[in-house]
Specification:
Helices cover about 80% and strands about 0% of the residues. By secondary structure, the protein is mainly α. The chain has one domain. Helix 12 crosses helix 13 and helix 14 packs across helix 15.
Length: about 300
C-alpha cells in the first residue's frame, strides 16, 4: 500500500480490495474514536488494542513507513530509467483489479450502472485538470494531507495524483521525505541534532503537518466510508469500480502527454533509456498476474 500510495495514478486502496482486507481496514479505522482515546488515557491498553484492532493497523502502518524509505526509493529509480515498464506494471495491476471486481459484483441493474458511470466520469475528468503551483502554507499542507489519504480509503482514486493537481506532490512526497531521510543519515554520522534540525527545519515541519492532516483525514473519511459501506454497499462498490476503470488512462504506458510526467520531469531526461514495447507488455502481464495470484490466494485462504 505504501508503494502504491506514492505512485501517482495508483490507489493504495486497490491493494486492500484485492487482498481482501478493505472492509476490515475501514472497520478498524472507524474504531479510532473518542472511546479509543479514553481507553488509552485511562491506561486500559489491552482493551484499547482489542477495540481498535491495533495489531492489524500497526502492521499496515509499519509496512507503509518501511516502503517509503526502501521499495519506493527503488521505484523512484525505475521511474527515471524504466518509466514505461513501471506504468505497464501498474496498468496491468489496476486493469486486473477492475476485471475481478466486475466479476465478483453479481447482478447489475440500471442504478448500479449509473453509479459506475459517475465514478468513471469523475476518474476521467481528473486527467484533464492542470496542476496548481506549489504552496508551502501549513494550513494548505494540512488540507493536502487530508485529501491525499483518499487513495488509501477509496480504491481507484489516487491520493498522489490529487497531490499533483494541488501542486504539492514533489514538496510532500519527494522533498520532505528525502529531508527526513537525510536527517536520519546525519544522526548516524554523529552530526548534532539541532544542527541537522536547522538545516531541514522547514521541510520537517511541513512533513509533520502533512502527517497530522493525513491521520485526521484517515479517521474522518474512513468513518464516513464505513457508514456508506454498511448502508449502500452495492452502490459504493459500483462507484469504486468506476473510479478504478476511470484511472486506467492515467496509467496508459504509451501516453505521450501525461500530467504526472510533466510534473515530475527532472534534468535526468537525457539518461532515460529507450524502452521496447515488448518488455512493457511483459510487465503489464506480470502486474495482471500478480493481482490475479493475490486473488486466488485470498480465495483459497
Amino acid at each position: 500500500m505504501g508503494v502504491a500510495n506514492k505512485v501517482p495514478g495508483v490507489s493504495g486502496g486497490i491493494i486492500a480490495v484485492v487482498t481482501g482486507f478493505y472492509e476490515e481496514f475501514l472497520y478498524s479505522l472507524k474504531r479510532l474514536n473518542f472511546k479509543a482515546l479514553m481507553l488509552l488515557m485511562t491506561g486500559r491498553f489491552r482493551s484499547f488494542i482489542q477495540y481498535t484492532n491495533a495489531a492489524f493497523l500497526s502492521l499496515i502502518t509499519l509496512g507503509i513507513i518501511i516502503s517509503y524509505f526502501t521499495v519506493s526509493r527503488l521505484l523512484d529509480y525505475a521511474l527515471i530509467y524504466y518509466e514505461q515498464h513501471v506504468w505497464g506494471l501498474f496498468f496491468g495491476m489496476v486493469l486486473m483489479s477492475a476485471v475481478l471486481l466486475v466479476r465478483d459484483f453479481g447482478r447489475w441493474n440500471f442504478r448500479y450502472i449509473l453509479f459506475c458511470a459517475i465514478g468513471l466520469a469523475t476518474g476521467i475528468l481528473l486527467i484533464f485538470l492542470e496542476p496548481a503551483e506549489e504552496n508551502r502554507n501549513l494550513f494548505f499542507v494540512f488540507f493536502c494531507g487530508m485529501i491525499s489519504i483518499i487513495g488509501m480509503t477509496l480504491p481507484g482514486l489516487s491520493g498522489s495524483f490529487l497531490l499533483i493537481l494541488m501542486g504539492n506532490y514533489v514538496l510532500l512526497l519527494v522533498d520532505a521525505v528525502n529531508a527526513l531521510g537525510a536527517f536520519g543519515v546525519g544522526l548516524t554520522q554523529n552530526i548534532p541534532f539541532w544542527e541537522l534540525y536547522n538545516i531541514h527545519q522547514e521541510l520537517l515541519q511541513i512533513l509533520l503537518v502533512f502527517i497530522l492532516g493525513s491521520l485526521t483525514g484517515l479517521v474522518a473519511i474512513s468513518s464516513l466510508l464505513h457508514y456508506v459501506l454498511m448502508r449502500y454497499e452495492k452502490r459504493l462498490r459500483t462507484l469504486i469500480i468506476g473510479f478504478i476503470i476511470g484511472s486506467l488512462p492515467i496509467l496508459w504506458p504509451w501516453s505521450d502527454h501525461r500530467t504526472i510526467k510533466s510534473t515530475l520531469e527532472t534534468n535526468t531526461s537525457n539518461t532515460v533509456f529507450e524502452q521496447g514495447t515488448l518488455f512493457t507488455i511483459i510487465w503489464l502481464i506480470v502486474g495482471a498476474a500478480l493481482v490475479y495470484g493475490l486473488d486466488m490466494y485470498e480465495r483459497k485462504k
